UniProtKB/TrEMBL annotation:
Superkingdom of this protein's organism: Bacteria
Major location category of this protein: periplasm
The keyword Signal appears for this protein: yes
Subcellular location: Periplasm
Keywords: Signal
One Pfam assignment: PBP2_Ca3427_like
Family of the protein in this entry: Belongs to the bacterial solute-binding protein SsuA/TauA family.
Domain Ca3427-like PBP residue range list: 96-180
Protein name: ABC transporter substrate-binding protein
InterPro entries for this protein: Ca3427-like_PBP2
This protein's GO CC annotations: periplasmic space
Bilayer-crossing regions: none
Length: 284
């Protein structure tokens, strides 16, 4: 039985993987799939892909493209979530900041450099016509718990994270959300180390097939909204709104999207060169 290590954020987007594991489908197919939660997000997963700690990652599109361009020996093998990710822009409940414009020149909490929270701070800055050199400052906080401490203590001024994941923290009166910033592209892809793709293409295809069967009919799973609400400590109405906005994919990411992401990253000064489509994406 082939052991395959997969990483992803411990969020509702990845419930399909848990359901597949719970059903025993991977083992029936001869795959010992081991899932690892990455509370540090995309930057943390990029590091683990480089180190060979994981074989696959369910990861933010812009984050893995940036890291592959910078030398990560991995490739995108499929889009996982087709819809944009809605990043909430949060401040401490007691903060004096009321609007996004109040945050110009203030310090953003980020999980790590190269993470989604780091890259989306640039997207938000560009959307609001800020000076990318003068108006962006960062404080590394590692994870969501670190963000709570960082904003509460004043070490950082604002924090960008997926809107629905942070909603319970807003409801508790710890964070206050003052705006949203959707990604201008499909938010999650599945990436794999090139060595794994070359040596185990059949196992990789089997894994994708198993997950795709679940995501294809994910919204039709009986009481899936209640399951998500209970598992991820969310209000039922929030889960139902999230489900209405979220679309999974079973297809490869298209070349136009890859070009769009790289153009945006280069315009923001996050990458200094671009890769051709076939150096970023591997069709099985």
């Amino acid at each position: 039985m082939k052991t395959v290590n997969v990483g992803g954020v411990p969020e509702h987007f990845n419930l399909a993987w848990y359901l597949a594991l719970k059903s025993g489908t991977f083992k029936k197919a001869g795959i010992n799939l081991r899932w690892k939660d990455y509370y540090g997000g995309t930057g943390d997963m990029c590091k683990s892909l480089r180190n060979g700690d994981i074989d696959l990652a369910v990861i933010l599109t812009e984050g893995i493209i940036k890291d592959i361009v910078e030398g990560n020996p991995s490739s995108i093998v499929q889009t996982f979530v087709q819809s944009p990710l809605i990043w909430g822009i949060h401040v401490a409940e007691s903060s004096s900041y009321q609007t996004i414009s109040d945050l110009r020149g203030k310090k953003a909490a980020i999980s790590r450099y190269g993470s989604g929270s780091h890259l989306m701070a640039y997207i938000n800055a560009k959307n609001n016509n800020w000076n990318l050199d003068d108006d962006l400052h960062f404080e590394v906080i590692k994870n969501l718990d670190g963000a709570i401490k960082g904003l509460s203590s004043g070490a950082a001024d604002y924090f960008m994270w997926e809107k629905f994941t942070t909603k319970p923290i807003v409801d508790e009166g710890i964070f206050r959300r003052i705006g949203n910033c959707p990604t201008p592209w499909p938010c999650f892809v599945i990436a794999a180390r090139n060595e794994f793709i070359e040596k185990h293409p059949d196992e990789l295809q089997t894994i994708l097939d198993i997950v795709n069967i679940i995501t294809e009919d994910f919204k039709d799973i009986p009481s899936i909204d209640n399951t998500i609400a209970n598992r991820y400590n969310q209000k039922l109405e929030d889960v139902q709104e999230w489900l209405s906005l979220t679309e999974w994919s079973q297809s490869i990411i298209d070349e136009e999207t890859v070009i769009t992401v790289q153009n945006q990253l280069e315009n923001l000064g996050i990458i200094t060169n671009q890769f051709p489509y076939n150096k970023l994406v591997k069709k099985l």
